[in-house]
Amino acid sequence: MNSLKAVNLCSEIFSFLFKIRIWWYILSIAFKTEVCIMEKLVITIARSYGSGGKEIGKTLADALGIKYYGREIFEMSADDDAEVYSVDDESIHNSSIEEMDAIFKRQAKTIREVAEKESCVIVGRCADYVLRDRNDVVRLYLYAPIRDCMRRVIRLYELNPDDAKALVHSMNKTRGDYYEHNTGQTWSDPTHYDLCINTAGLEVNECIAIIRNYIEMKF
Questions:
Q1: Residue-by-residue DSSP string for 163-189
Q2: What b-and-e string marks burial along 80-114, b requiring 16 or more CB atoms within 10 Å of the CB?
Q3: Which residue has the higher pLDDT, 219 or 213?
Q4: Pairwise CA distance, residues 105 & 111, whole Å
Q5: E-assigned strands of 52-186?
Q6: Is the Cβ–Cβ distance between 62 and 75 less than 8 Å?
Q7: What confidence category does residue 93 fall into, taking pLDDT thresholds of 50, 70 and 90?
Q8: What is the domain partition of the chain in residue ranges?
Q9: Are the C-beta atoms of 122 and 69 separated by less than 8 Å?
Q10: In this model, does residue 20 exceed pLDDT 60?
Q11: Which pLDDT band, with edges at 50, 70 and 90, does 37 fall under?
Q12: What is residue 1's predicted lDDT score, i.e. its pLDDT?
């Protein structure tokens, strides 16, 4: 009788250990799959003018060891088309609707190709919207109060306060109109983004730390 109990106990232990081994195998596969998925990460940055988005984007790309794309997307999409290439990417809204739509389609195609190929940081170009269906994208929106944006613009371009304020308002309107025209959505709506950061009072490296911490927590 005792011998039978011992056999049954051994059988139960073996069965239990076997189940643990199976679950461990399943979890290890899931972990490897997740790591594999996150081998590539694309970060898009929408930013209000004067908030430091371009500098933060470049510094972030360097910190992560990945490519940075800003105007480069515009240049890559223009290719050898001199007519398209001659249009300043911040003045696209001055083009005809047909030209603007054609430029956006070409840029969107380039953005998708880049996102499919490699990890990178993409600033502007409605990239958050273009890549909205991808799971390997972190969508950021950087902003700052008008006074902080003005200070940055004054420092960079040596403008007087009135001209700096006018430029900030003008560029934000340009970006907002461009985004709304191509996406049908409001550019500054925080629900379109994963993380919104008020850059006022923050150093570039502090913004980078916030972004990296968010990425680590999310992925």
A1: HHHHHHHHHHHHHHHHHHHHHSS-TT-
A2: eeeebeebebeebeeeeeeebeebbebbbebbeeb
A3: 213
A4: 10
A5: 67-69, 120-123, 137-143
A6: no
A7: low
A8: 41-213
A9: yes
A10: no
A11: very low
A12: 54
pLDDT digits (tens, 9 = 90+) for 119-174: 999 999 999 999 999 999 999 999 999 999 999 999 999 999 999 999 999 999 99
For residue 195, give both structure tokens: 């993380």
How far is the C-alpha of 124 from the C-alpha of 108, rounded, in Å?
Answer: 11
Euclidean distance between CA atoms 71 and 200, whole angstroms: 24
Q: Give me the residue label for tokens 């980078």.
A: 208
- d(CA 172, CA 165) in angstroms, rounded, equals 11
Alpha carbon distance 139, 126 (integer Å): 10
**pTM of the predicted protein model:** 0.77
Residue 165, amino acid: K
41-213, CATH topology level: Rossmann fold (3.40.50)
Q: Give the span between the Cα atoms of 147 and 168, in whole angstroms.
A: 10
Whose tokens are 């409605």? That residue is 126
